[in-house]
Design a protein that fits this description.
This protein is mostly helical. It has 3 helices and 2 strands, in the order H-H-H-E-E. The chain has helices spanning about 45-55, 60-70, 75-85, and strands spanning about 90, 95-100. A two-stranded antiparallel ribbon has the order 1-2. The protein is elongated, with a radius of gyration of 22 Å.
């Protein structure tokens, strides 16, 4: 008896499924975007930004925003620093403030 396994050995290399190719002429449907959200943001960052925007002129601390949005403070910190890098949020003292999207979106 041979110790080597016989059969479909080549499938061990790449078991990931192949992508499904759309039919010719079929246009891909765009994903829905929340109202007022930047299409370049992910779902969770958008949720954080909308929560920050809900605080308005008062701004929000990390703990307040974490409680309102439902993420941990560390996750909120990652989101708001990313938003600040895109010009959507700013830090003043210990509070984060949402900035406007005017001029950032096409057609806005």
């Amino acid at each position: 008896m041979s110790k080597r396994q016989k059969g479909r050995r080549h499938r061990r290399v790449n078991r990931t499924p192949r992508p499904v190719v759309a039919a010719r002429g079929a246009a891909p449907r765009p994903l829905p975007v929340a109202a007022g959200a930047d299409p370049g943001l992910g779902r969770h960052a958008t949720r954080t930004w909308e929560g920050l925007r809900a605080y308005g002129e008062a701004g929000a601390s990390l703990d307040e925003l974490a409680e309102a949005v439902g993420y941990q403070a560390r996750t909120i910190l990652k989101h708001v620093t990313g938003l600040a890098g895109q010009g959507l949020a700013e830090l003043r003292d210990d509070r984060w403030y949402a900035r406007s999207l005017a001029g950032r979106l096409p057609g806005a």
